[in-house]
Amino acid/polyamine/organocation transporter (APC superfamily)
Amino acid sequence: MSFTDVLFGRPLASSDERAEHIGIAAGIPIFGLDALTSAAYGPEAAMTLLIPMGIAGLDHIVPVISAILILLVIVFFSYRQTIEAYPGGGGSYTVATENLGAGAGLLAAAALMIDYILTAAVGISAGVTALTSAVPELHNHRLSICLVILVVLTIVNLRGVKDTGAAFIIPTFLFVGSLLAVIVVGTVHFYLSGGHPVPVVIPPPPAATTVKYLTLWLLMKTFASGCAAMTGVEAVSNGVMAFEEPRAKKAQRTLSIIVVTLIVLLFGITWLSKAYGITAMEPEAHNYQNVLSILTTAIFGRGWFYYLTMGSVLLALSLSANTAFADFPRLARAISMHDYLPHVFILRGRRLLYSHGIYALTGFTAIILILFGGVTDKLIPLYAIGAFLAFTLSQAGMVVHWLRMEKHPGRLWHMFVNAFGAVATGITLVVVLIAKFMAGAWVTALLVPFLIVIMMVVKRHYTRVKREMKDMTPLNLTNLQEPIVVIPMARWDRIAEKALRFGMVMSQDLKVVHVHSDDEPMGLEEEWGDKIIAPIQKEGLRIPELVTIPSNYRFIINPLMDYILELEHNNPGRKVAVLLPELVVRHWWENALHNQRVQLLKLLLLLKGNQRIVVVNIPWYL
Amino acid sequence: MSFTDVLFGRPLASSDERAEHIGIAAGIPIFGLDALTSAAYGPEAAMTLLIPMGIAGLDHIVPVISAILILLVIVFFSYRQTIEAYPGGGGSYTVATENLGAGAGLLAAAALMIDYILTAAVGISAGVTALTSAVPELHNHRLSICLVILVVLTIVNLRGVKDTGAAFIIPTFLFVGSLLAVIVVGTVHFYLSGGHPVPVVIPPPPAATTVKYLTLWLLMKTFASGCAAMTGVEAVSNGVMAFEEPRAKKAQRTLSIIVVTLIVLLFGITWLSKAYGITAMEPEAHNYQNVLSILTTAIFGRGWFYYLTMGSVLLALSLSANTAFADFPRLARAISMHDYLPHVFILRGRRLLYSHGIYALTGFTAIILILFGGVTDKLIPLYAIGAFLAFTLSQAGMVVHWLRMEKHPGRLWHMFVNAFGAVATGITLVVVLIAKFMAGAWVTALLVPFLIVIMMVVKRHYTRVKREMKDMTPLNLTNLQEPIVVIPMARWDRIAEKALRFGMVMSQDLKVVHVHSDDEPMGLEEEWGDKIIAPIQKEGLRIPELVTIPSNYRFIINPLMDYILELEHNNPGRKVAVLLPELVVRHWWENALHNQRVQLLKLLLLLKGNQRIVVVNIPWYL
């Protein structure tokens, strides 16, 4: 078993595909981690904006989160329908393309690609930030730690979807389980104490009230920030193909479990925070704790359970990046099936995965992590935009879909759900865009059109190539003529002999070209007669032409190129085959000992040549 | 006129060579600057070691420098004879190789290469050090300034030897002229004042005496340090070929002028220092000035002449690196003519220079400057070793040379001069090695054998290639058989048609190979009958064989390689030509849109293939 096999698993045959499909238990960690971990930062994101209102802010947080949960339910129903309607997967991109046209599809594609790359980068760096807060000695190594986690995620994902699910099940259930325990125990305390629970540890006091009234602008910003809690919900719809049969049903059930769990976590955390009088703290405060930490301490104190909960949150956050690894390659494949991205994304690697998508995601994530030195917290506003753009397009697409399915029972009800969802998420998108524009959403607003232009250029290239290459006509056998064979020859040696022998088999029309520099004592003429002409004459074969080109300036390549191009020009309709002897050395460093003119000539012949010039490499093994 | 022509000059024809040869006036700056500038630091290097003796040290400095001058005269006569005996140039390397054998030649070669690279690096950084002492704001940019000077030197040298001479004549004569003025005026003052000249500005007082007696060890170290004054003397002997006819005579005269000037400068500076009671200062002293600066101030005061002199010293020092540019390429050429270095060093570039030697020197010098951050003062001890090793070998070689020239008049006298020189420089070499071993000479002692091993490996490679390639036998025309042509084909399109047409011209024996992956809906079979077989049958030509290889694991390259290698194995004595269609895109980035399997296959065929497998590139221009 090779090292590659140990690291990435043995290669899988195409017929193994069925066995690689996953069930619901593996589907939740693979496609749900990104959505579920939103519970860890979503409520806090909204509560942070209410800090200036002090304790009064708590009155507004439950309504805001409830509004977000209603939106979440709408989006959930919409995606459930999408999964049923498009069991081939592809999510927003497919739905938008098929129903709203290529333009809307590209918009969704660009939004989702940005979303996934940011999910990977932000997830990893969020985990590492939590880790370095706990162990400050690691602070200077955060970028390295981020990159190590990225490499580990890449390797795990290159092993295939089944192994990935197995690896992530425990961290996911630990995360969900410990948060549920906090919520359940907190709720029990609340009711046992008659609505006035006594915290084990008193939470830090709320900040002084500096803003008295909730303005519309503040409400919008709070709502927009809280919407971060909804990212990741579209993941399942992109990955339907990964599930075992009955595919759509299993995917739907996975999505249902994920969304119900997410609703419980989001509402539970928010409601308990209000019940215990917990407000968010300024992140710059010297004794800063996040809301989850304060809440867990209030309910359980600082015992082993506190550390278990915090540890599982940290682990789940950094693994949430994995959802991007599960979806990005599938998305890239769907896009390149329509010729909008390089075709490599369609190829499946040794483990039946779209490996190039994984490489691309790893590359882009690494670039972002390096650019921002592993501190990607500022990127969080960017990626709600991508998610909501995808939500809106997907649901608008579904409306058109139902319009077309005239016979489908309950079509109007489905259409109503999707239309309502499209309008709601569309409005949210505008709100988020306005509220977060200066904070960084403008970057996404620039990147999306940029990506769309790239995809259109790629499409144009492929369309042209297909048009030019397509040949459904039968083989054309007219005008089959021997090529003119050109053999550049510096001196008479064994590789020159090999080339000449090969040339004589290929064609009767041979030109041996010798570029003669004034520096050299003698040309080929000396040996030409005895060594070359004589044996050929004896066999009665046609004698090759010796072309000697003088070169005053010791240039070899240019006169040779000029000669070949002229020859081609003067013999319209004939092919010119250039035989290039090539020394193959035993060790790479030996290449430095031979001049690389042949490589340069090959390159120039490709660049300056045309359809009628063919290069034949005659290798000589040293 | 292109940009290249403006920067490097128009290309020169081989027949222009005569016009590129130089006379004595250009020879002095090109080959003499390194030797002449030794006057600026040689006496000081010796005097620095006598600082602990205080004013008493002055009694010893003139005898030490006199001993060095005697050695210099011996070496001078020796090199004069070498020039006459070897008008083809090559200096120590050629002399040692021809008379003492290849081993001694390699030793000289390694020593000289190290010497030249260090000369370039130390020269440039010495100049920059002087500049940054004068303008401390530039201190943080010293490495950048070093590299800029290196690039300028490279460009000037790439223009050719004649232009280089012209550029350097004025700085050289300014340097020599101002130092001569100092010496002449100082001497006149000395005699006019009856042996007790009155300095215009009183020199700093000598250090307190801490060492009373001159020990043998201190004398040895002083002598070894002063020997730095002799470096660069071998330069002319390496460059004899650059001179116009009568070549040897002009080179000898150039060498004579250089050495006589150097002797005057060295003795003058040393003797006047004693006369004016000037001792060296600790380089770490806060008001440090070098001996030249103190001497010039004592004789002329701090007027414009002082600044002219100091400026010309600075300029000459940084240009002294140029001697390495003049000699290194010629040395590399001589070594690679014996197959000990890559043959590129033999090629002459567009300006009739051994351009690759210039590139190599620039590269190595840049590496050293970057490694040491432009502070290369510590490298000075290293390069006296190289110079003296070359002196000794060259003169020992000349002894053998005279032994063989039995008829030469005055042979015994010549032999005596060279033998005396060899012994003297040999002893000096040992003294320098011992005195400077810990200070850095050990680096040279390690580098020399390392370089020798590299040169021997290169030689072994070339010898093997020559043995294997040499073919003085006539063209062998037996067993001229058509190759088996293999055409990998993924689908039937226009480039496949082009390849097939070319293959049919090449051979009757065609194999169209289709690797069929389970992922793909259909193979080639569908179109094979109608589109390919039918027209061929109609023309009555031989039908190619369709080979379909199933691939469960979606690998394309491996099954194809296996098939080709097996085919070759089963058909001993036949050539196998693999026709590889290659898309040539219009813009480089378009390559990312096509998979690069063909490139990989070409590479694998070269690496795993053998003498009987030939690759034919069929280009298709998009």
Observations:
- The first strand of chain A starts at residue 484 and ends at 488.
- The beta strands of chain A are 484-488, 510-517, 545-551, 576-584, 613-621.
- The two ends of chain A are 33 Å apart (CA to CA).
